[in-house]
Write a structure and sequence with these properties.
mainly beta, cell shape, three-stranded antiparallel β-sheet, transferase activity, L,D-transpeptidase catalytic domain-like
Length: 171
C-alpha cells in the first residue's frame, strides 16, 4: 500500500510513501477532506484500491504494473454529472451529461491510475474522477486527484502498488 501524507507547507503539497521512497506529489488545491463533495477541489481521505491504468499509447509506453492496463481512445471520458446514472464512471464520447475528456491536449492524463473512490456504491455528489495522474510542469494543484511526475508514477506502478491510503493532515 502506498501512503499520501499532506504537508503543512501548503494545502496542495503532499508526500507519497512507496516502499522506501518518498516522492513529492500534488493534491487538491483545498488539501484533503473526510467529507468529499463534487467540485470542492479537495482530495478524499481514506484507504482505496487502485482499480486500473489508462495510458496514451501515442505518447507514452505501456506501464509495467500488475493492475489491468488499457490504452485510451479519443472517445474516452468520465462522467462527473451527479444527476446522471453514469456518474463517476468511464463513458464513451460524445455523451449528453457533463463529463471530463480523458484524451487531452495537455499531458496530464497521458498516464492515469483510477483510484477506487465512490465507485462501489456510488453516491451522487460525493466526488468523481479521483485519479493518480501526471503533474503539470508548474506543479499546479489538482481538483482532488494525486499528481506525480511520470517517472514517479511509473515507479509506483512497477513496485506493485494495488491500494492507496490518503491520510488526514495531522495538526
Amino acid at each position: 500500500m502506498i501512503h499520501v501524507k499532506p504537508s503543512s507547507r501548503s494545502l496542495s503539497d503532499a508526500q507519497l510513501h512507496c516502499e522506501h521512497k518518498i516522492m513529492s506529489v500534488v493534491i487538491g488545491k483545498n488539501g484533503v477532506t473526510q467529507d468529499k463533495q463534487e467540485g470542492d477541489h479537495a482530495t478524499p481521505v481514506g484507504r482505496f484500491p487502485l482499480r486500473n491504468v489508462f495510458y496514451r499509447a501515442d505518447r507514452v509506453k505501456k506501464p509495467d504494473t500488475i493492475l489491468p492496463v488499457v490504452a485510451l481512445t479519443f472517445q474516452d471520458g468520465w462522467c462527473d454529472d451527479p444527476a446522471h446514472p453514469a456518474y463517476n464512471q468511464k463513458i464513451l464520447l460524445p455523451h449528453a451529461a457533463r463529463h471530463e475528456r480523458l484524451w487531452r491536449e495537455d499531458h496530464v492524463y497521458d498516464l492515469i491510475v483510477i483510484i477506487g473512490y465512490n465507485d462501489e456504491k456510488i453516491q451522487a455528489g460525493r466526488g468523481s474522477a479521483i485519479f493518480m495522474h501526471l503533474q503539470r510542469e508548474d506543479k499546479a494543484p489538482t481538483e482532488g486527484c494525486v499528481a506525480l511526475t511520470e517517472e514517479d508514477l511509473r515507479q509506483v506502478l512497477a513496485d506493485g502498488a494495488t491500494a492507496i491510503h490518503i491520510h488526514a493532515l495531522k495538526g
